[in-house]
Queue: 4 jobs
Job 1
Amino acid sequence: MGYIEGLLGDNEQIVVRTRRHWMVLASNFLGNLILGIAIVFVTLLATAVVGPLLGPLAPVVLALLLLLIFPFFGFLRALLDWWNEEYMVTTRRVIQAEGTINKHVIDSSLEKVNDVVLNQSLVGRLLDYGDIEIMTASEIGVNKLEKIARPVKFKTQMLNQKEAMGNDDDFGRRGASRNDDVPSLIADLDNLRKQGVLTEAEFQQKKAQLLAKM
């Protein structure tokens, strides 16, 4: 069982699960790649041009090559952060989880979601990524998910689950209302029995039918 699965309540299920778009990771990789190429270029330049003038540059070259560790670990950290940053819609809430070692989780109940705003550029529509702003009645107010993959599906599933929760609540309230009316209906039937409108057998039959609905 994963970390997120351990946070789910009874009968709560993940409906859609996504991360930030791969473009976010690609831009970080490109930046670190350019930095690495620059370090190698400076190393070669120092060896070819400055070396004959200043003599052996082994310590300097080694130091420059060691600098390649920074872009390598910079991308590795970005990769781990990207992999561990997830956005989910469950049957009850929206969950945002991040952190490789120390986890940070934000969740918003679907009941408190007032509005959902989707922003997509032309490139975002072509590559299927965008920003989603979730406006809630909680203290957070607005929760912004930036450059997530499959934003349209994420928003659609969020609204579908919110509507489904509302329908379940309405059904529960209607059921509770009907249950509350059963005793009064039985009392009305009893009055009809006493007035001779219903026989004892008819009264018992209808009473049993009402009790079965509770």
Note: Residues 182 and 210 are 6 Å apart (CA to CA).
Job 2
Amino acid sequence: MTDTMALTESLEDYLEAIYLIIREKKAVRAKDIAQRLSVSNASVTGALRALAKRKFLNYSPYDVITFTPEGEKVAREVARRHEVLRDFLVKVLAVEYQQADEAACKLEHGISPDIINRFVQFVEFIEICPLGGEKLIDGFRRHMKCGAGKGKCDVCLDIVREHIDSDSEGPEAVKKNSLAFLKEGEKTVIRKIRAKGALRKRLLEMGLTPGAMVEVERIAPMGDPVEVKVRGYHISLRRDEVQKVEVDMK
């Protein structure tokens, strides 16, 4: 099996370009590649011959270019590395899209699949983790926009104070936007788990985490228990438990 690391950075760029063009247009010719990479037709021809020699492409002059099974596998992995790195730079580090795309192109060539998977897992984790989540990412974006450095935390402190105030509004305030207010068949996104201690841990372990989609499937005649679907699992919750799950009521 051909090792992707044996390819030069330039040939990986050609594979990625061909893969993306095929994904967009279903077919690719040499002139499409030259236009996308801003290179000469002669450079494209040389790269195509090199890739065909390594059995990544089926290529002959003036014909449509297609991948071999191995070539498509390698090209897909190169494109995936690029997309993961770009998304990490944009979503987590708040880098502008164009700048992130250019940086990802430079970074993608030397990173192993295992490390790329860690990037993916970290992005997924930080989006749903109750200790961080989207608020943490948004906070970092504000931090960078205002100018990185210490002593610029007033906005985040105000947000924290708002959450503390909302938590102290009492049980009625919690109930108005809790999962308990949804009817059978309704679905929404979980915003927050208001429980503490063992109950909080239990709800999170069942998959009721901020950002997850939850659907009310059945409510018992007396309102207890409530059966919900979250992350593909069917869960039965007590009435006092659903009241601790804050959801988006929009």
Note: Residues 156 and 162 are 10 Å apart (CA to CA).
Job 3
Amino acid sequence: MEADLAVIADEIYDLLVFDGRQSPSFPTLRPGLADRTVVVAGVSKTYSMTGWRIGWTIAPEPLSKAMGNLQSQETSNPCSVSQYAAVAALTGPQECVARMLAAFEQRRDLVAARLRALPGVRIPEIGGAFYAFFDIREPLTRMKAGGIETSLQWCEALLERQQVALVAGSAFGVEGHVRMSFAASEATLASGLDRIAAFLQTG
């Protein structure tokens, strides 16, 4: 606030938080933040409704009106089926969210334990969502002789040799790291982790 900055708060994962924790909405953290914050959210992640294309913003009224004016000239409305489905998801029973969160926590534990067992791989605590963002800088130093020097090259080699697709950390501005999604079955994750381990051993 001292720097007079506006904030766009991406809260699409706000309910996918692990270990009984909660994710407070950014504009509630301090008086005055609501006047300079745009909250972005939707049903894509919490309710697995990615293809339904329903999201929303919460913003100061003048900015909301301006965004509405702009959007009305650039896009049409979401289809009525998607809108009714989103209302049903938001206002209906929420047990499905709790079940999904429990499943993601179990997969998180599997992925984190397996990654921490790999030589040179470092992974911080995963507090929410369904991604593991881990440090491969030490393995990269060992693989330079083979021409693999960046996280993108590492991911490309992993895909080519082991058919496992990860996202290079450089895509997020963090070189030497990679991102793995654990939005998959435990059997699929275990197979992928086996292949990552084999890649590190032979790389």
Note: The mean pLDDT is 96.
Job 4
Amino acid sequence: MAVYPGRGLHGEVVSALGLRIIRSDYPPGSVIDIDALEPEFGVSKTVIREALKVLGAKGLVDSRPKRGTFVRERDAWSLLDSDVMMWRREARREDDRLLADLAELRDAIEPAAARLASLRRTDADLEALESAFDAFAAAGRDVDQLAAADLEFHLLLLKATHNELYARLDMVVTHALEARNRIQHHPGAGWMDPVPDHQAVLDAVRAADPGAAEAAMRFALRDSDEDLRSGEPPFEVEHQV
């Protein structure tokens, strides 16, 4: 899944329009008025059209002769696209199950990934996992270091499956962990020591024990799942669009 970099005016327009669509400011079927957007954003029609092409690639809009550019139904959206997930998190619609869905998807993905990793990991994979775990264990209450090392550990585990499709699910894990960290891992918050759970996963992968690896990961996910289902605090957005 390509992640749109979101740089410059072009990126600002993409993000603003994407968020509006997710929030239903532009409901499905509505036509996007390019002429009205040009003065609003202070950019040319070319920039607007290029931004809409990006949104079209994400399944959010479509263009037809004599109809113009219109918002597509939700079932056409690329829901695993990183930007779409970020806009859904930022929009915080009460009827959006994104975080609960991410928790359920992690339950399906990561224990099975740990099982495969225990069977397929190379020495290089194990060395990388051990390095990420050491950084994780050394982070203590440094929330930024803890979050970065935790994410690295989980992504390396997907990579160690040597299954290209598992590796492409990195955005699911990334957004789930980012949301969990905003809920739980912040200064002043209390949380259970996550090191023993991750140690158990690493030990099972090192021992090439698929049953233990799967069980350890399932156990490690329990608190993260509960946090995700509880929802995350609002984003602090500098410029509301």
Note: The first strand starts at residue 61 and ends at 64.
